[in-house]
Amino acid sequence: NRFEITEGDNAVVTGILQIPTNVENEKISANLAECVDDEEEMNTKDIYKELRLRGYQYTGVFRGLQSASVSGSNGHIAWTSNWVAFMDSMLQMMILGQNSRNLLVPTRIRKLTIDPKYHIQLIQDYPIEDRQFSVRHYKSLNVIISGGIEICGIVATPILRRQKAVKAVLEEYKFVAHRDLETMSLQDAIKMSTHIALECCNMINVKIIEFVDDS
């Protein structure tokens, strides 16, 4: 069955939804996936500091990654009974695995397989206060697997970062005649002559001598 999610008059997501008779046939074969077991050196603070530097602002349940390797190949995701936040954390592993700090957003997913029975069965083996799944990013297959969820064929597109608003700088230019019939004060004459000298001479270091008349 085809589905479509719209925002206003625009379609933002389209796809095909189906319930397979045997979900195991829809999963990636374990023989095709290479072994991924890098050391998970990054903790939650390190992960979301790195993502913040790339332009992402994750908060609350969407800060689900508990640990991850520097390469973004493997890690652990906390289970909070929120399927959306959990799958978003899986996509964050893909972002960590990018060598670029460009701001990327997923724009296409070839296939998303969810086996809820297997997923819940796995989590029953963990205590309630420490329920988390291991997550693996198989870059050669472009697949992310965690628990009973597999995300295949992710395409991410770079977007422009929001520019910070900068206060406008207002400047004023006034024309001062070099010669006119009016009498100019000594202070204004020195200031004008200094400006003309600096504009006409390319100098980095300027020496100024102040003359003081004690009389």
How would you characterize this protein structure?
- With about 220 residues, the protein is α+β, with helices and mostly antiparallel strands.
- It has one domain: Roll (Thiol Ester Dehydrase, Chain A), CATH 3.10.129.110.
- It is about 20% helix and about 25% strand.
- A seven-stranded antiparallel beta sheet has the order 3-4-5-7-8-9-6. It has a two-stranded antiparallel sheet with strand order 1-2.
- The longest helix has 15 residues.
- The chain is elongated.
- It starts with a strand and ends in a 15-residue tail after the last helix.
- The mean pLDDT is about 85.
Estimate percent helicity: 10-25%
Quaternary status of these chains?
Answer: single chain
Strand order of the largest sheet: 3-4-5-7-8-9-6
Q: Could you say what the CATH architecture is?
A: Roll
* Main CATH class: Alpha Beta
Q: Could you tell me the number of beta strands?
A: 9
Task: Estimate the global geometry from the Cα principal axes.
Answer: elongated
Q: What are the low-pLDDT stretches, counting only 5+ consecutive residues below 50?
A: none
Instruction: Report the biggest beta sheet as strand number plus sense, adding barrel if it closes.
Output: 7 strands, antiparallel
Number of domains: 1
The helix tally amounts to 4
Helix/strand order: EEEHEEHEHEEEH
Name of the CATH superfamily: Polyketide synthase dehydratase
CATH topology: Thiol Ester Dehydrase, Chain A
Helix and strand composition category? alpha+beta
Overall radius of gyration: 31 Å
Distance between the termini: 100 Å
